[in-house]
Amino acid sequence: MNVCIIGAGRMGKAHAGRLARIEGVRIAGVCDVVPENARALAEATGARAYTDPEEMFGRERPDAVWICSPANRHSEHVRLSLKYKVPFFLEKPVAVDLEEARAVRDEVAGSGV
Predict the structure, then answer these.
(1) How far, CA to CA in Å, does 89 sit from each of 3, 4, 93?
(2) 102 Cβ contact list (under 8 Å, min separation 6)
(3) Domains of the chain
(4) How far apart are alpha carbons 25 and 17 in whole angstroms?
(5) Residue 6 CB burial class (10 angstroms; 0-12, 13-18, ≥19)
(6) Structure pTM?
(7) Contact residues for 22 (Cβ-Cβ < 8 A; gap 6+)
(8) Cα 105 to Cα 90: distance, rounded to the nearest angstrom
(9) C-alpha neighbours within 13 Å on the C-beta side of residue 44
(10) Tens-digit pLDDT profile for the chain (113 aa)?
(11) Strand residues in the chain grouped as ranges (E)
(12) Does the N-terminal peptide bond of residue 70 adopt cis geometry, omega within 30 degrees of 0?
């Protein structure tokens, strides 16, 4: 199973460490807006580094994505996962306000992902 991680900060690193220990899971791509963070985690996991999540989705075609980006980017990254029909694990919170969280919930419910 090829997975990608969006967000190479503290939570991204924590999840990468756990994912790396699961038999059959390969971390294919790591994306972060800070190129050095993306590169460092990618090198540690044998993945490719990206600063653009859309490019990562297009090139890696992951089986699943871990969304570990800052909370204010969560809904954007969920929508990108839905666009590419990729199941996702999302760090909390879903969104930064209730209205956006409800909108994301409704989009996910109707997506088939």
Answers:
(1) 10, 10, 12
(2) none
(3) 2-109 (3.40.50.720)
(4) 11
(5) buried
(6) 0.95
(7) none
(8) 12
(9) 19
(10) 999 999 999 999 999 999 999 999 999 999 999 999 999 999 999 999 999 999 999 999 999 999 999 999 999 999 999 999 999 999 899 999 999 999 999 999 999 99
(11) 2-6, 26-31, 48-50, 64-67, 88-90
(12) no
Question: Could you tell me the two tokens for 24?
Answer: 């059959």
DSSP states along 60-113: H--SEEEE-S-GGGHHHHHHHHHHTT--EEEPSPS-SSHHHHHHHHHHHHTT--
C-alpha to C-alpha distances, 85 to 21, 45, 57, 82, nearest whole angstrom: 25, 24, 10, 5
102, HSE (Cβ side, Cα atoms, 13 Å): 3
Closest of 105, 113, 20 to residue 63, by C-alpha: 113
Dig out the tokens for 54 from the structure: 């859309």
Q: How many CB atoms lie within 10 A of CB 47?
A: 25
